[in-house]
Amino acid sequence: MGGRGDEDRRRLTRMPSQGAIVAVLATAGLCASFMFTLVVPIQSELPELLDASREDTAWVVTATLLASAIFTPISGRLGDLYGKRRIVLVLLLTLVAGSVIAALSPGIVGVVVGRALQGAAMGVVPLSISILRDVLHENRVDTAIALISATLGVGGAIGLPISALVTQYLEWHVLFWVAAGLGAIVFALVLWIVPVSVLRAPGRFDYVGAVALAVGLLGILLAISRGNEWGWTSPAVLALGLGGIVVLLVWGWYELRIDAPLLDLRVAARRPVLLTNIASVAMGFALFASNVIYPQLLELPVGTGAGLGLSLLAASLVVMPAGLVMMVLSPVAGRLAHRIGPQRLLALGAVALIVAYAFTLLWSSEVWHIFVANLFVGVGIGLGYAAMPMLIMRSVPRSETGASNGLNALFRSLGTSTAAAVIGAVLAAMSFDQDGVQVPAPAAFQVSFALGLAAAAIALVTALFIPARPAPQERHPSLPD
Predict the structure, then answer these.
(1) Residue 1: what pLDDT?
(2) What's the rounded Cα separation, in Å, for the pair 232 and 30?
(3) 434 beta partners
(4) What are the residues whose beta carbons fall under 8 Å from the beta carbon of 362, sequence distance 6 or more?
(5) Whose CA is closest to 445, among 349, 369, 379, 385?
(6) Cβ 374 vs Cβ 412: under 8 Å
(7) What is the C-alpha separation between 130 and 128, in angstroms, rounded?
(8) Distances, alpha carbon 453 to alpha carbons 173, 350, 456, in Å
(9) pLDDT tens across 222-237, in order?
(10) Which of 16, 90, 379, 385 could form a disulfide with 352 if both were Cys (CB 3.0 to 4.6 A apart)?
């Protein structure tokens, strides 16, 4: 690269300190990921608070997951075309708007709309990772990527006790005002600190591809997320699931035949990218399974035979250290990636998750058992989530980093959505009646631990087949001097 590329690169070097840029983007990632656990403390009370059925109030959580999965790859492509910082700012404004809508809404419709807009902001994380590749010195990129990746777990882990404290002492709408305030602060910081993106991909935005991708994903994710309540063999679930698959197949055929696709599927099919994305599904499943299992196990009454009888706030404080572990590990993960490579880093993360679930299969009768297992989850996700974007960006062209990282985030979302549905189905199916309330049996948690272990093992096996170094034709162009 020369001429214009060198000029753009020099412009990128005249900017605020690289440490400040990383700190602001990490804060943006924390803010976006916080949205996933924002309403957890009031989830069981939503039917009463919103005067709606439990099935309807489930959309307060489902809408966030769906919007995140659908808009993340689309926002990645928009960032490649029109500037990554610009799209980050748009997403943060979307988060603020959604938070204000939910804060002002007394009924369920406004809250669901607001939560969907909050979920769309998750595209901030893969875009921030792509910005790092554009603006940081090559020696600092891996460590910074590890930090931003950690925010996917840290935001939720730290946000849970914060949400619990807010709802314990204040009116529930305050949660959304807090989210709006955080989004506004981060918007101002990004506008002030993060440099304008000058590295753009050629071409135009594929509107047809974006709509088709959204429709296909919506069908599949709705079938997965609502299968437990609607019935896995019900006409609605089958129509949504099969229809979504058909739409995505047609979408893939279309994307391979146009000049400026939403996602370059030929790049996505490269062995390192494809296997990393498959590992992402398994990693996402293993992470979200722990998010579902451990809090329930900690909070269920002792009389159920499996529960440990903690309050929501106490349970959130037990699981919170996993997020802190992810944050502390981020600089270590960056250095390890330099030393052993991201492929082995991903394998190490999968091993840590295997240890976590194997531990709870053997010991889960005391609070400290869950605390220790959750620390291993923090190690596993901290290493694995750091490795995945490194593997992606070493195997795709610079013009594809936003879209490719967005696609990787989509695969993680597929894993988390599947975990929520599968673990939820297991806990519901293996439950018993206690004082008129259905509670999971101890065996349900054992099966759930085994499923988490299986997902971690799939991630490990997949990681072992990822090439330690991409083939020459699969490497991205090196940065100019």
Answers:
(1) 44
(2) 34
(3) 437
(4) none
(5) 369
(6) no
(7) 5
(8) 38, 9, 5
(9) 888 788 778 888 999 9
(10) 379
Rg (the chain; Cα; Å)? 21
Question: Which tokens hold the place of 69?
Answer: 């999965």
User: How far is residue 270's CA from residue 280's CA, in Å, rounded to a whole number?
Assistant: 15
Average model confidence (pLDDT) across the chain = 85
120: helix, coil or strand? Answer: helix
End-to-end, the C-alpha distance of the chain in Å comes to 10
Compute how many other C-beta atoms are within 10 angstroms of the C-beta atom of residue 371: 16
**The pLDDT of residue 270:** 86
Query: What pTM does this model have?
Result: 0.81
Q: What is the maximum alpha-carbon separation in the chain?
A: 75
Distance CA 404, CA 77 (A): 8
Query: Position 22: which residue type?
Result: V
- What the block records as the tokens of 236 is 């609605």
363: which residues sit within 8 A by CB, 6+ positions away?
Answer: 369
The Cα 431–Cα 445 span in angstroms is 10
434: number of Cβ within 10 Å: 13
What DSSP character marks residue 204? -
What pLDDT digit, counting tens, does each position of 374-428 carry? 999 999 988 998 899 889 888 887 767 777 888 888 888 888 878 877 888 888 7
Which of 90, 68, 72, 76 has the alpha carbon at shortest distance from 402? Answer: 76
What's the CA gap between 340 and 466, in Å, rounded? 14
d(CA 163, CA 167): 6
